[in-house]
Amino acid sequence: MDLKRIDDFAWEIPKHGSMRVPTVIYTSSKLLESVKRDLTLKQAKNVACLRGIQRMAYVMPDAHQGYGFPIGGVAAFDLDEGIISPGGVGYDINCGVRLLKTEYTETDIRGRQRELLVEIFKEVPAGVGKGGTTRLSRRALEEVCIKGAEWAVENGYGTKEDLLRTEENGRMRGAVPGYLSQRAIERGIPQLGTLGSGNHFLEIQKVSKIYERQVAEVFGIHSVGQILIMIHCGSRGLGHQVASDYIRLMENKFGTKELPDRQLINAPIRSKLGQQYYGSMSAAVNFAFANRQMIAHWVRNVFAKIIGSSEGIDQVYDVCHNVAKFEKHRIGNELKEVCIHRKGATRSFGPGREEIPAIYRSVGQPVLIPGSMGTASYILVGTSEAEKLSFSSTTHGAGRVMSRHEALRRFKGEKIKQELESKGIELISTSWKGVAEEASQAYKDIDEVVKVSHQVGIGRIVAKVVPIGVMKG
Amino acid sequence: MQRYRFLKHTADAKFQAFGRTLEEAFSNTAIAMVSLMWDWEKIEKREVIQVEVEGRDLKQLLVIFLEEAIYLLDTKNFLLSSAERVKIERRGRHYLLRALFKGDRYSDKYKIFGNVKAVTYNEMKIKSNDFFMIQVVVDI
């Protein structure tokens, strides 16, 4: 495939064949090597062929092969001509990251990480087949899907301030639970308030370096050694079912013949099916917001119980990284509303955007980038330049380079636990196999990934954090 | 004949399942998929669930068939040990599949070590030569 180097951190697939727009890949020559090894570029090219796509298709620095869109794929569609695609959002709808800051330092909790982790593990159900402690009626679940994190706060999980510091204030307005299938609801009911498994985790972290002190302080992050809590999970079986249901419904309605990849099935945004998918997807987004809201509440309770108080444990932000949304962006000379798909990409709004909390409006939104298990994570800040460079999007994590199968062959869960412990990181998990699959060597170098984001200008590095306690689902 | 084997895939799990008939190959995709989550050979066959699914073509039928096992796990804690008496027939413009899922409900005696979120169409192949080969990538 013709790949044109633009500069040190950007490559382009020029428009050719049935591509409607060019594709731009933000990466480094080092990261590009792994991107070339799988289907990422082909998938990125396919995205550029979709109806109504605007300006360019973008690929973020942590990109790897997905299904339909690559992971790390960003595309915007015209509301009249364009499409909405479940394959542009992913199966784990509103998989995302929530970050809480505390006023504790490493010294305050030294020697008690294990105790904290064991207690969190008791409170937060994780792993496959683990149902939540909250068994809801169908009606209550529908309310969760309409109100999202607001439902959780109304029911005693956390505070109103948490909502203000959540993307969409924790509630997508367009959710229509009536469009969910019976199966989506059945799968959602036992799984609300659960972490899940796979790459999902909960970490107790400490700040290891602050790069932009002034911005960090606005985010509530003021010193090296400060303890933070990061929660990474999504909409569980409910979201997976929504994706599967609408892929099937769209196939049955529109057929699959014209698609470059069957997983790219889509519907016109204005069509009934397009609207129904958006309503269901938004319901799943809200389910995930409520899920993280509940988990955050339990973590606060554990801190109160073990350390004595949860005072000062405030939410920094909560971001989605698998979602489709309506946002205003500049296309040519016109500011227009488009349907943005971010699949394994984080929104990265800069200063002034009205969608971000007032407290952050002077600096830009926090962008939370989880690393792989046991490695560093980063806090970035959204930029104004990102609007023209990537429809205000940046990376969402490290991105895999090695298959889980290969990781299992090479690594042993028990050994990884010992290695982490020797670095002062406690680990607790439901499965050794899961630990081996998530070995940090199976991922891209997170430092390199965020460096590209920073250099390109789509998300600036504010602080680096490292884990001291990891709970893996 | 080997029942299934796993292939390299960056993020997700890719496998091929084999069978002398299409039905046998379908049955083997089901155990290949659940082998990512539990050891199907160790699951007792204490419960039998009748499965009936429809698809507009064979690939969609396969996706719906495999997702049935995920749905039963999420909603009934059912761990599949085998998919037996698989029958696939054409019904007008559609395909119909019937099968018996045998397995057990989750309890502490079983170990679960992974999760399959969904079945994708990526790199999906259904081929027949001397035998049937089905290739699937699942999102995990």
Structure description:
The complex is a heterodimer of chains A (473) and B (140). Helix content of chain A is 34%, strand content 26%. Chain A has 473 residues and is an alpha+beta fold. In chain A, helix 5 (138-147) crosses helix 11 (272-307), helix 8 packs antiparallel against helix 10 (236-254) and helix 10 packs antiparallel against helix 11. The radius of gyration of chain A is 21 Å and the shape is globular. With 140 residues, chain B is of the alpha+beta class. Chain B has one domain: Archease, Possible Chaperone, Chain: A, domain 1, CATH 3.55.10.10. Chain B has a four-stranded antiparallel beta sheet. Chain B has a three-stranded antiparallel beta sheet with strand order 3-5-4. In chain B, helix 1 (22-34) packs parallel to helix 2. Classes of the chains: A alpha+beta (473), B alpha+beta (140). Chains A and B meet through strand 4, helix 8, helix 10, helix 13 and helix 15 of A and helix 2 and strand 6 of B.
CATH architecture of chain A: Alpha-Beta Complex
Which CATH architecture of chain B would you pick? 3-Layer(bab) Sandwich
CATH fold descriptor of chain B: Archease, Possible Chaperone, Chain: A, domain 1
CATH superfamily of chain A: tRNA-splicing ligase RtcB
Instruction: Return Rg of chain B in Å.
Output: 14 Å
Report the structural category of chain A. alpha+beta
Q: What pair of chains forms the biggest interface? A: A-B, 45 and 37 residues
Determine the strand fraction of chain B and express it as a percent band.
over 45%
Report the CATH C-level class of chain A: Alpha Beta
Mean pLDDT of chain A: 94
Number of strands of chain A: 19
Shape label of chain B: globular
Mean of all residue-level pLDDT scores of chain B: 94
